[in-house]
Structure prediction request, 615 residues.
Amino acid sequence: MEVFKGYWRPLPAFDRLVWRIIPDPSTRKNEFLTGGIDVLPFVTPEIVPEIQTNPNFRIETVLSTRLMFVGLPVDNPLLADKRVRLALNLAVNKREIIEQLFRGIGAAELTVPLPLTLAERNPKLEGYPYDPDKAQKLLKEAGAIGKTITLEASYNRYTLDREMGEALAGYWEAVGLKVDYKPQDWAAYSPRALRGSPAWPTNPFLMGFGDGRYLADYMYDLWIVKKPGGSRGAVYTKGPDHWDEWVREISLLGLQEPRRRELLYKLQEEILDYAPWVLVLNFKDIYALNNKVDWKPFSNERRDMYDAKPR
Amino acid sequence: MHRFIIERLIQSAVIVAVVSVIVFLFVHASGDPAALLVPEQATAADAANYRKALGLDRPIYEQYVQFMSHFWFSDTVKSFRFQQSLLPLVLQHLKFTLILAALTIVASSLLAVPLGIFSALRRGSVMDVGIRLVAVMGQSMPSFWVAMLLMLILAMHLRLFPVSGVGVKNIVLPAMTLAFFQMAVLLRLVRSEMLEVMGQEYVRTARAKGVPEFWVTSRHGLKNAAIPVITVMGLQFGALVQGAIVVEPIFAWPGLGWLLVESIAARDFPVVVAGAIIAAVFVTLVNLIVDLLYGWLDPRIRVN
Prediction:
């Protein structure tokens, strides 16, 4: 891309921007380290130390609008019991996942059922604590100890998605469940999980959600609201009807209207109580940059380079 | 000869047609591309509408006929992802693969032929053992591993070549990766053919006549040993077009292999089928040329 000299705003500092399409992640990293590219998005955590040891490069992280959760279809006989759904949340050590898989820098604990970047998240909510003893107790009360649960996940779609699923399976097994873990190619996984093509999964499924519009009702419109003809809310969540009314009302309210925030805070509280999802983590996007370039990444995954400047 | 060529062309057309049917059926069985191409927030109804727009709701035989009748001569069949006409898209990428394949064959031959001859002439020596060891390594090591190794040493540490991309210097590493295996195959073939030929009576006669060893090896030995070697080179050229599927994405070399890998993952059916058809056409044509070349090189072989 070359700069358009007739642009009405001040011209960008760089005259030319080259987008390199490099399919292999290892090649991308090597290309960056040899100076072939100046900005490398979505760096995986394990290569951060290698980049940081080089004084010519730096790492920038930004809290992303993308989160990871496990959808719990409440029609599944095991998951119909709220105690089981709560137990699945309490069994997960999110801090350990972040420290071990994401080296402490690639993610943050998800404490609300919304991306942490959103101003409309309820600040009073602290999510689910890590409490495997309580998880086990709930499972015993529900008669679920020793039962088998299948966890489906994608691979090569989200950062460390397969490994995240393995960790979740391990935590659930540690509290007394048997877990059959099935990672799948995104091309086969996503049509089923997102659209029920050819059929909606009835097992827990690891999924990501991200949106650059920073609107809380958008996520709930996709995952909570029950719509005719098959929607994720109608198939998986099957929440109370007043949630649908709240989301409809929220979508009609202006962003500054107090009623909007009031409804959103209440909705988040009730969602946490209902536990239709296992809240896992919110990504922190890691970018590697050549010190020749002065640029800050965006939380919504856009690579808008207009403000990039040479250092 | 003309009858042979016509028969082979007809056979090739049948082969390409069979390949197209098989690939078309398998690709359609692999999943729904509309479900992948619509945004994540799209509903099942949106995906269904898009399927209809792509013509995927029609019977499969109708889709196949529509595809084959328009693929060659019109631009109405387009890639789902790129929305570009198929044939130009595929040929644009094939060009890069052909360049890579040609360079690979040249490089592997330039190494394999002298090493194979040397190894044959010094049979049993330490050098012979060493060369054969290199050949075994070349055939044993997976190409993706060779690619990463060459990238690490020559691009990362020694900074002799770029890591990836398109350009004169950029082609060296992918060509070396592919050439390592090709060289191993050719080297062993050259060696075994030379061993067989150099043991023939006419070679002994040439030596007895006082012909210098250089001319015995080159004019009498290599010339006869080269015939199967050249035919294998030609066949390898066709195989390289498929073999580049692993190497091209690693080096971001925008050849047909890269296009096919990306298109398979994205369920871009038209591109996958078109790529497979073009590859099949290419391989069958190369095989035909090799057969003709074989007949031309060896006067004893004539096809009725």
Summary: Chain B is about 75% helix and 0% strand.
